Every structure is written in C-alpha cells, then in structure tokens.
Amino acid sequence: MLKIKSNKILIDTMRIPKHIAIIMDGNGRWAKKNGMNRHQGHKEGVISVHEIIKAACEIGVKYLTIYAFSIENWNRPVEEVNILMNLITTIIKHEADELIKNNIRLQIIGDISRLSQTFQNNVNDCIKKTAKNNGLILLLALSYSSRWEIIEAVRHIVNDVKNNQLNVKDINENVFSSYLATKNIPDPDLLIRTGGECRISNYLLWQIAYTELYFSNVYWPEFGKENFYEAIYNFQRRERRFGKTSDQIQNKH
Ligand code: IPE
Ligand code: IPE
Ligand code: MG
Fold this sequence. Notes:
Layout (H helix, E strand, L loop, with lengths): L1 E3 L4 E3 L7 E5 L3 H7 L4 H22 L3 E8 L7 H24 L3 E5 L7 H14 L6 E8 L1 H17 L10 H5 L12 E4 L18 E4 L9 H12 L9 H5 L3
Helix pairs in contact: 1-2, 2-3, 3-4
Bound molecules: 3-methylbut-3-enyl trihydrogen diphosphate (2 copies) and magnesium ion.
C-alpha cells in the first residue's frame, strides 16, 4: 500500500489502473480566471503534463493516453492553433532525452498528416528514439478524433476484404480493435477529464465502452499529483461489473 500523506488516502498499489486516459481541459478558463491570456494557460498546462507523467511512472501505470489536440481543435482561431502547435513541437523536441532517461516510450494517435513536415519529422524522431523503452507507454492523442479513427479503421478493413486479406465472417471486436490507432493497447481502465465539463469530446469512443469515468472540476493547469491520486483512489472504490451482478463479481463466479 502506498500512502499519499497530504490527502490521507491509501492507494492500493496492487490495483493501479493499467491504462489511464486523460482529457486535459480548462487551460483557457484557468488563464481567464487569473487575468492571463489563453496562451499562458496552455503554457502552464505543460507543467501539469510533466507532473502527471511523473506521477504515473512513480505508481506504475503502464499506459497513459493524453488528449493534446483534437481534430475539432483545428477550428480554433489560427493564432491559438499555432501557439498550441509550437508548444507541442517544443515539448516533443526537448523531451526526447527526458523520456529516454525515464524509460518512457512515446506513441502518437491521430491524423498527423495534417501537421507540418518538420513537426512530423520531430515526432517520428522522438518515437524512434524511445521505441526500446519498456516503462510507461505514453500515447499522445494529437490531431485525434475518435470518429476519424473509426472511419480510418473501416476503410482499412474494407480494403483488406477487397484484397482477400480478411474474411467478412472473421470480423469481430478483437479484429476491429486491431485496426484502430490503439492497436495492441488495452482499453483504458480510467478516464479522467479535468475542467468541469462532463463530456467525451470525440475521445476513444470505442475503447471506453467499459472505462470508469472521472470528472474533475479542477482546471488542467491546477491539476496536480494529489488530484491524480484522488482520481485513482476514487477508481479503486468502484465495482466494475461488466454486465454481471455484484454477487457474481464478489463471489468471483
Ligand atoms: C484544453 O484547454 C487544451 C486543449 C483543448 C488543447 P482548453 O483550451 O480547451 O481550455 P478551456 O476549455 O477553453 O478552458
Ligand atoms: C477536448 O477539449 C480536446 C482536448 C483536450 C485536446 P475541448 O476543450 O476541445 O473540448 P470541448 O470543445 O469543450 O468539447
Ligand atoms: Mg476546453
């Protein structure tokens, strides 16, 4: 058992969610609340990203998926899109060594063809450099939307059927999952959304079929280690039934 002193909560280290997905939201509202511009909110949000990755490594989370930029976010004012892209590029460029040092493997999910060539090169470089790491697997959802991902999967499936590489009668949930960007990654156990909105915003729709959802009112730049542990603590108090009855789960029938 790991004791989180500040909150006096006990996290069961034997039941750490294997995969945590995060919708980091509230940068803009945090900035506004503090009389700053949205840019400053995003910059401050980067500090939370560092802290939460560190916390996830410390307690042994295996997969962490963070929503950095949605396909819908391309519709924001061009200045904000540029600011976000520059921030993400800087992080990826400068973080490679840090990721290697901490044994973190970076993967990207999303339509990166929409990003500039330089950006794509930086990202691919970082993915390659960290490919052999076997600690935390960090999935960055970048220019990502779940409906885009599902449509892409359908396209590939249809192609493979046309080319006789896949038989229609063999299509099942596992096969479908293997066509998604999250291929080989187990579904999230816990999804955390910060910033007070209770919606999914086109994130991992297929993968979260049985994920536990946790909504926090805290804006992302204020979301720290303790809030993260609180979410895990809350998760550990739930009973996941997957359609069965409570008795079945408790008697392990
Ligand atoms: C989350 O914060 C960051 C991204 C979506 C990239 P927002 O920018 O959405 O902040 P709010 O929701 O406007 O406060
Ligand atoms: C979701 O946040 C996307 C990311 C966190 C990257 P948004 O702020 O874009 O979501 P909506 O528009 O409020 O649903
Ligand atoms: Mg938002």
